[in-house]
Model the fold of this input.
Amino acid sequence: SLYSQIHKSFLNKDYAAVDRLSNDFLQGRRTQEHREDALLLQALALFKLNRAIEARAKFLELEGSFVSVDDKAGASLSIAESYSDLGDDGQAYQNYKTTFKKYPDASQTPYVLYQLLKLSEKMKRHEESIFYKASLLRDHAASREAQNAQMRFTSVPEIDRLGSALRQISLEEQHLFSV
Done:
């Protein structure tokens, strides 16, 4: 079947074939069972073909078609990751923030917060990095990302600032970190 050919082409890293076959598969078949999977493989293939703008459009389409919050968050996260993979920290940061704001309860949230923490540190947005670390430690303490975040700050002044940020977080988060 056409769907199997898409999978086989993807596994064989024939990304141009995945794009072409996915277009054929998706044309006029909006209700077909494997539509989202074909769209996902097409988006990934487009990114591998260095067609990031088209890949992001497919991820955005996927986000709109998914029902579950985790699937929607995953598609949104893929957009942020595509910017990160290309070294565009500013756009990656904005898209991670968008994912966090839209899907704060998704299973990917600890990962998103950790990426925001790393990027805010890199971009010297210290208050924001404290916010993201505090959010990880407060809301996702058992996650691997929270454990990694715990090790990122070691100086006493930083720990003091983190404690202060934890006390003020509910007052500031809507105002300071809106998308």
